[in-house]
Description:
The protein is α+β, with helices and mostly antiparallel strands. It has helices at about 1-5, 100-110, 115-120, 125-135; strands at about 10-20, 25-30, 35, 45, 50-60, 65-75, 85.
Amino acid sequence: MILDKFLNLEGTSIQGYLHLENIGIVFRIESKNKKATCPRCGLKSDKLHQNHRHLVKDLPLSGQPVYLQVNRRQFKCDNCQKPFSEKLDFVASKRTYTKRLAENILEQLKEGDILNVSRRNDVTEEEIQRMLEDIAE
């Protein structure tokens, strides 16, 4: 699909999208992978346990805010018998924004201050602080 290429998130496909007035564009996306790797033992599993939808802020598109409604699936490991969430390459664990948005914001900080960059990108100063901490690690 042309939108998959346009969004440029490898390994994902767009299931649909909405344009919400005064909010932005929300893309519903899923991983194309049928299996995920267990973080405990390293074995791949295709046993779907649950679906979890997360809203993640991404780079704007034509001046419109963009959000990704990600179906982060939870699998059950055949070996460990424990559930685990699939890893997504484009968003860090426990974050509500994409890695590329964080990189873009950190670039903007070179020529601006946290308050103005947070206002311009509709993110909190705390989120920018977390981005800086993530980069420092």
